[in-house]
Amino acid sequence: MSRFFNRKEKKNEYKKTLNQKLSGIISTVLVLIIAAIVIATYQGLDFVYLAYAAIDCFFASYEVEDAYNDSENDFFTALDVIEREHAITIEIYSAAGEFVYVSSFKGEMSYPPYGKHPLVVPSVEKRDFEVIEDLGSFENNSFNLSRDTNGAKNTVYLVGSWVMDNGCTVKIYKVKSSVDTNAKIAVTFISFVTFAIVFVAIFVLSFFIKRITTPLTEMSHITKNMSSLDFSQKCQPNDVAEIALLADSINEMSDSLETALIDLQQKNQKLQDDIEQEKTIDQLRQVFISGVSHELKTPIAIIQGYSEGMKMFLESDDPEMAMKYCDTIISETERMNNLVMKLLDIIKYQSGEYKLFYEQFNIREVIESWFERGTELLKEKGIRPINDIPDDMLCFGDRFILSTVVNNYMSNAVSHVSGDMIIQASAKEISDDRYRISIFNTGTPIAEKDIDQIWNSFYRADKAMSRAQGRFGLGLAIVAAIQDLHEQDYGVINHENGVEFWFDVKKYDKQ
Q1: What is the distance between the alpha carbons of residues 208 and 211, in angstroms, rounded to a whole number?
Q2: Alpha carbons 376 and 394: distance in angstroms, whole number
Q3: For the chain, what is the radius of gyration of the CA atoms?
Q4: What is the pLDDT of residues 113-169, one digit of tens each?
Q5: How far apart are CA 296 and CA 304, in angstroms?
Q6: Comparing C-alpha atoms, which of 200, 199, 154, 152 is closest to residue 175?
Q7: Among 315, 360, 371, 495, which residue is least crowded by beta carbons within 10 Å?
Q8: What does DSSP assign to residue 307?
Q9: Which residues contact 329 (CB under 8 A, 6 or more apart)?
Q10: Cα–Cα distance between 202 and 25 in angstroms, integer?
Q11: Where are the alpha helices (DSSP H) in 112-235?
Q12: How far apart are CA 145 and CA 304, in angstroms?
């Protein structure tokens, strides 16, 4: 028990010492602030007045520049408002030094921007000043005190000069006597307000400092952020034992909650990704079932019919016809297998199941390889192949499936080439990191109604295409899936004498 009272006594003694130190610091600061205000108000009054007026002129110059650049409002009206609000007189000189504006001139003046030959205000409108004190200059502006030597006025002005971004010079004149009067009133008012605020602030701070609320306020702020799932801030060490213990507890709790939240977010993200992937797979499954059921109806019916016919010919002892029927059944079976494999490829690419293997490859060699493998077919159809791709064009991507893109484009070109019977491969650099590869074939352009549809599965622009060609309308859909997997563009362009299919591929960076 005695140890408890000793600890409490030490704690109270520490608080008392701390409050005494803080009170001493606050008293010292108060004395310095009051002394500074007294000196600024009564000893350096002239400087304070001029500084106050100079700042007012400084902001007025920005208003003049804004009015200069504002083409929607009347320039002269805006300047008249600025002069009345700030109690100033404005003169403007063009970039060439021509006197182009002063409010006292009643004749015609030019509107900005000032060109090579603006209307020049007569020089008699200029004030005749004698500089009596240079107050300082900066990069684009300067201040001085000048006396008006015109007539018997002998009035002293604060004169500010600014060079705008467009090269024009703005001069602002403010009567010093009015500056002194207005500034004195303002400074006196500010002095009294400052005294009142300082005394009130010191009283309030002294009250709260005795309670040592600063660490507790910080902890409250941190725990509030924790309720908003922000664990970035930590409580700082404190000399008061109880507060230090509480700070450590809050920090430990913050670390535990942050760890648990990060783990929960990671699991939630994984679950979200799994849900999205499942949705994608489900959609692709529906496309697969719909496409297969639609495309397999005809070959299944053919196989059924030819199987019954083959049975009949076998029973009638006509093996030659039975063999022909067998060939038809095999052909349709191969066609069905080809269809299913292509659909599986599309699903594999679109579902994200396929992982790209990036490597360097020469795109010209890929095109040339296809032309070599299709030599007999090209000769049979009378097609003239042209490979205009440079020898040193190195690309970066999954060569295996990008070869499928080339193969599908080439097969499509062979099926639709006509006229001059030309298939031409070309390439160009479209950015610092991409090439565009094009496959062009002479022939009939694609109808506008089909342009956006040809990339969809099972869509055939040529409805009369023979089944014997073995085309399902999947080749371009596979191209779209492969390009999307590479995050690269693809498309088609109609020309007067043919059609150009293109796809983008990354450029190989040797670094």
Answers
A1: 5
A2: 28
A3: 44
A4: 887 788 888 888 887 788 888 888 877 788 888 888 775 567 888 888 888 888 889
A5: 12
A6: 154
A7: 315
A8: H
A9: 302, 303, 306, 307, 310
A10: 11
A11: 176-210, 214-227
A12: 110
More confident residue, 16 or 203: 203
∠ CA 234-236-239, rounded to 5°: 155
HEC per residue, 159-190:
EEEEECCCCCEEEEEEEHHHHHHHHHHHHHHH
Question: What are the φ and ψ backbone dihedral angles of 152, each rounded to 5 degrees?
Answer: -110, 20
Distance CA(501)–CA(437), nearest Å, equals: 8
> Which is nearest to 22 in space by CA: 213, 271, 287, 300?
213
What is the four-CA torsion angle of 193, 195, 198, 202, rounded to 10 degrees?
Answer: -130
φ/ψ of 248, rounded to 5, equals -65, -40
Contacts of residue 281, Cβ cutoff 8 Å, sequence gap at least 6: 347, 351
Q: How many Å apart are CA 309 and CA 219, to the nearest integer?
A: 89
User: Can you give the three-state secondary structure of 55-96, one letter per residue?
Assistant: HHHHHHHHHHHHHHHCCCCCHHHHHHHHHHHHCCEEEEECCC
Cα separation values, 243 from 237, 353, 427, 488, Å: 9, 55, 71, 59
Q: How confident is the model at residue 424 (pLDDT cuts 50, 70, 90)?
A: very high
The 3-class SS string of 430-473 reads: EECCEEEEEEEEECCCCCHHHHCCCCCCCCCCCCCCCHHHCCCC
How many residues in the chain?
511
CA dist 363 and 427 (Å) reads 9
The residues, ordered by sequence, that sit 6+ positions from 58 with a Cβ below 8 Å of its Cβ are 141, 160
Give the model confidence (pLDDT) of 351-407 as tens digits.
Answer: 667 788 899 999 999 999 999 988 888 999 999 999 999 998 999 999 988 988 998
Instruction: Retrieve residue 343's tokens.
Output: 């659909």
For residue 122, cis peptide bond before it (omega within 30 degrees of 0)? no
Nearest CA among 473, 464, 474, 467 for reference residue 332? 467
pTM of the full structure? 0.41
pLDDT per residue over 442-467, tens digit each? 999 998 888 888 888 766 655 545 44
